[in-house]
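Possible regression after last week's pipeline update?

I re-ran a chain I had predicted before the update to compare outputs. Posting the input and the new output here so someone can diff against the archived version. Not blocking, just want to make sure nothing changed silently.
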Amino acid sequence: MRRRTLASVVTLGATAALLAEAPASAAPPAGLKNLGDARQVIVVTGRSWTSTYSTVTAFQRTDQGRWIQTFAAMPARNGYGGWAWSASRVQDTGTTPAGTFTITQAFGVLADPGTRLSYRKVDGNDYWVGDQLDPRTYNLLQPSASAKRTWRTSEAERLAAYPTQYAHAAVIDFNRPAGVHWNEELGEFVADTPAHTSRGSAIFLHASGKGSTAGCVSVSRADVAALLRWLDPALRPRIVMAPASDLANA
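New output (post-update):
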């Protein structure tokens, strides 16, 4: 869900320069074990299990198998409740889920900044649903509040209501449903295999607001736009998030 700032924008040219100059490692960043076939990884390191401050770094694996840091470290905020392992996270606790997740789509109130991810420019009709009484729509973006919908608007985020935080956002695939398809009769997306309704929804990497988030990770607007331009689905990006003491276990 929401919220800090870095002074400079890393342009595509600067990214190329960082790739050329950054130190390389034959091992995965920070000894991470769950990267699978990812060739891009964003690492979110929390200061402690209770801290709401964190740091974001990004790495890319070369054709020779070396990991190279692609951006300078970015100051970030995480959940007001600190951190919780993803398997035991509880909705509405303000904790950021610790673990390793894929990143497959993005959205924003602003236009596509040039990402290769699937990007949706949202408007006042777009909602992200977290209605625990409606599992089939839980943790899904809905393009409208259809008159026949099965979910409650009171249990959903109207994305355009957060123009600062959701200027740009990447969706972190925590607790996502499977078998998603459009139900024409109800005018909504539904899932054949719903997400776990007690673990929470709408976990994003988004632009910062005024403080900690409700479970998301936030960096400056310039930084999230730069990360979106860098992310490439062909390189199977992942995000690894955890306090520094347990990052290798995420």
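Follow-up from reviewer: compared with the archived run. The two ends are 21 Å apart (CA to CA). Marking as no regression found.
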